[in-house]
Amino acid sequence: MAKTVHNRPIYVLNGPNLNLLGTREPEKYGHTTLADLDQICREAGKAQGFDVVCHQSNLEGELVSWIQEAKTRDAAGIILNAGGYTTTSVAILDALLSVRLPTIEVHITNIHAREEFRHNSLISRAATGVICGLGTASYTLAITAIAGLAGAAKH
Fold first, then answer.
1. How much is the pTM?
2. Residue 5: which residues within 8 A CB-CB, separation 6 or more?
3. Mean pLDDT over residues 5-15, rounded?
């Protein structure tokens, strides 16, 4: 049976310093580069019948614009690793609350096992779910979750 192809994309948004994946603290973040991660996400989306749009920015406003773009493109959902903005960005929180799309907050590391300031996520207030501490597999699990929320999970 052929996999249904959906016209609604899944947005994968990565925040500050995630462009340094593969070289930044590999003992915490691993050796997978952002380009590798984008390819992994596209393949996981394809397996679920979705196109995946991947963006990374060190700029808060650019992330807000992509969240709004996801709404105008009728995205199935957003997967967001807001990086350092997780604990500080009311603007990103407000954008997520405004678009009201299924959103999975992801983190490569377990933010609850790290420094105390990383424990309080503003993004979680708007997230449908949170996946953290599972390395880059957090992203593929999030894609499966968004596909399920869109009623298209692989059985």
1. 0.90
2. 49
3. 91
